[in-house]
């Protein structure tokens, strides 16, 4: 029997526009998460950038049960690539679809913020 991996998805907003799809920015974000979380919790969480919804909003996937540690570590990150930036989590969900729907409801009129 093959068990499916359970994931949680975090909708995260940055304080300024950030091209999180750029591999350099993604690597810097992962490095900052690693430094705040530590190696074992980071390995268990396995944070990955799933998609970027706008210039400031993106979705991260993490293993279920470790989302609180990732949210806390994101709150402590203040610098990505020499640019001052802050991150805060808008919503946590079990599916990307529900986060896309929530993004449409929250940022529908102002999607290019």
Structure, described:
- The chain contains four helices and six strands.
- The longest helix has 15 residues, at 23-37.
- It has helices at residues 23-37, 39-45, 67-76, 96-107, and strands spanning 7-14, 48-52, 57-63, 79-80, 83-84, 87-93.
- The chain has a single domain (7-108), classed as Alpha-Beta Plaits (2-Layer Sandwich).
Put the structure in a nutshell.
It is built from four helices and six strands; from the N terminus they run βααββαβββα.
Keywords:
39% helix, alpha+beta, four-stranded antiparallel sheet, Alpha-Beta Plaits, 113 residues, two-stranded antiparallel sheet
Radius of gyration, whole Å: 14 Å
Q: Kindly state the mean pLDDT as a whole number?
A: 91
Which geometry do the CA atoms define?
Answer: globular
What's the order of the H and E elements?
Answer: EHHEEHEEEH
CATH class: Alpha Beta
How many strands in all?
Answer: 6
SS field, number of helical segments: 4
Segments where pLDDT lies below 50 for 5+ residues? none
Helix content: 25-40%
The overall number of domains is 1
CATH level-3 fold name: Alpha-Beta Plaits
**Strand sequence of the main sheet, in spatial order?**
2-3-1-6
Termini separation (Å)? 46 Å
The CATH architecture term is: 2-Layer Sandwich
Question: What is the assigned CATH homologous superfamily?
Answer: Ribonuclease P, Pop5 subunit
């Amino acid at each position: 029997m093959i068990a499916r991996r359970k994931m949680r998805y975090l909708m995260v907003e940055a304080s300024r526009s950030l091209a999180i799809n750029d591999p350099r920015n993604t690597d810097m974000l992962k490095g900052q998460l690693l430094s705040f979380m530590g190696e074992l919790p980071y390995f268990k969480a396995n944070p990955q950038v799933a998609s970027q919804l706008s210039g400031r909003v993106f979705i991260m996937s993490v293993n279920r049960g470790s989302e609180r540690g990732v949210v806390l570590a994101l709150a402590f990150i203040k610098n990505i690539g020499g640019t001052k930036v802050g991150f805060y989590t808008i919503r946590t969900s079990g599916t990307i679809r529900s986060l896309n729907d929530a993004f449409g409801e929250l940022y529908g009129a102002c999607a290019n913020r």
